[in-house]
Known about the structure:
Number of helices: 5
Radius of gyration: 17 Å
Helix content: 55-70%
Oligomer: single chain
Amino acid sequence: xxxxxxxxxxxxxxxxxxxxxxxxxxxxxxxxxxxxxxxxxxxxxxxxxxxxxxxxxxxxxxxxxxxxxxxxxxxxxxxxxxxxxxxxxxxxxx
Length: 94
């Protein structure tokens, strides 16, 4: 009889959900695009259906958004999500 593996909740040991370098770069890209569009942080948060305080955390690099949020931000910023990611990679030096 085969022994079943125990399933543990949560992330595997050693994994992390936050990495400052891409978070800061992504925030800078979002802020630059927002300023280029000449809209306020409050307007962007409304367009993307994000709390304004959370929008601030994203722009400051304190939070790295998930895929769904990246898609909503891209739509609100009238840009393809891939362009946001490419610009983030460029800032990171990749």
